[in-house]
Amino acid sequence: MVVKVYGPVYASPKRVLVCLLEKEVEFETIPVDLLTGENRRPEFLKLQPFGSLPVIQDGDYTLFESRAIIRYYAEKYKSQGTDLLGKTMEDQGLVQQWLEVEAHNFEPPVLNLVRQIMFSSFYGLTGDKKVIKESEEKLGKVLDVYEDRLSKSKYLAGDFFSLADLSHLPFTNYLVGPVGKEHLIKERKHVSAWWDDISSRPSWKKVLDTYGLPF
Amino acid sequence: MVVKVYGPVYASPKRVLVCLLEKEVEFETIPVDLLTGENRRPEFLKLQPFGSLPVIQDGDYTLFESRAIIRYYAEKYKSQGTDLLGKTMEDQGLVQQWLEVEAHNFEPPVLNLVRQIMFSSFYGLTGDKKVIKESEEKLGKVLDVYEDRLSKSKYLAGDFFSLADLSHLPFTNYLVGPVGKEHLIKERKHVSAWWDDISSRPSWKKVLDTYGLPF
Question: Would you call B100 and A49 a contact, using CB atoms and an 8 Å cutoff?
Answer without folding.
Answer: no
